[in-house]
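Students often ask what a holo structure prediction actually looks like on paper. The answer is less mysterious than it sounds. You provide the chain, you provide the ligand, and the output is a string of discrete structure tokens encoding the 3D arrangement of the protein together with heme C.
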Amino acid sequence: MKRTTLNQIIDLLAAVFFLGMIATGYILYFPLPPGTNKSHLLWSLTRHRWGEIHAWLSLGVLAILFLHLALHWSWIVVAVSQRLGLTRDPQAKHLKSGIITTLVLLGILGAFAWITQVSVKEQTTPCCPPKQRRKAPISTTPSRHPSSTATPQPRARLTPPTQRVPAAPPIEYWKDVYPRLASACLRCHGPNKTRGGFRLDRREDYFGSNENAALVLPRNSAQSPLLSIVKGERPSMAAAEAHKLPPRDIDLLRAWIDAGALWSQHAAPKKQDAP
Ligand code: HEC
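The corresponding structure tokens follow.
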């Protein structure tokens, strides 16, 4: 093969790899930014896969660069030789210059490898503040779906696919549900006044005991009596109007139940803020 053809092929390969590297770098920065690996796909590849492609392309660029250096090796050696003043004669043997050039290149690569290796540090602060992740799924079910009171919504509705948050911590009774119910229900269902034998702070009142049937069936909001009460589907019960909740709170209750109705007793407030 002629030398110029070879050079052209190498230049073409270099251009392809280099453009590929830029394109995948763009993908990793804009369409699939950090944190989207578990939740998003581009052309059915995850961010992690694109990162691997990016890395292989850059290795390709490196390989072509070395090939390029190798093909120009004798020119490089002569140039270095003349610069160092080792010889004025272009025909002279350039062994010494060749060794020096190789050593310098290897030294630079070795130094780079060493510096990157020793510079890796563990992160002292975690990357993603957990606060944002917790609030996001709850607040994404606003009252702009008034119809949602009539039909049970699947859990998936609470985490739309556009959300760039990997996974929200589960909804927990004392942390998430109780504060919303307290303002609407506590005045009739607290320790001071307990209408209908139901108290907001008693676990057995929700999940049933020997005397009482369960109001909440974990992972089954459709069959849970509590949900039909707050949706106003029991007009015959006393103070029926006082039992209706806004759609936003109904969605939260439903999500809590369908996620397993998590109830951590240690999270209960020490003193009930009963009126
Ligand atoms: C104005 C007072 C009042 C408010 C506010 C109120 N309730 Fe009631 N609740 C009652 C009364 C009275 C009963 C008894 C109804 C009956 O037995 O017919 C009752 C009964 C219940 C029962 C028992 C139903 C059964 O079949 O066992 C539950 C559960 C309940 N309420 C939940 C709630 C929830 C949740 C809220 C807040 C959204 C709430 N209540 C707000 C007065 C109230």
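The CA atoms of residues 190 and 274 lie 6 Å apart.
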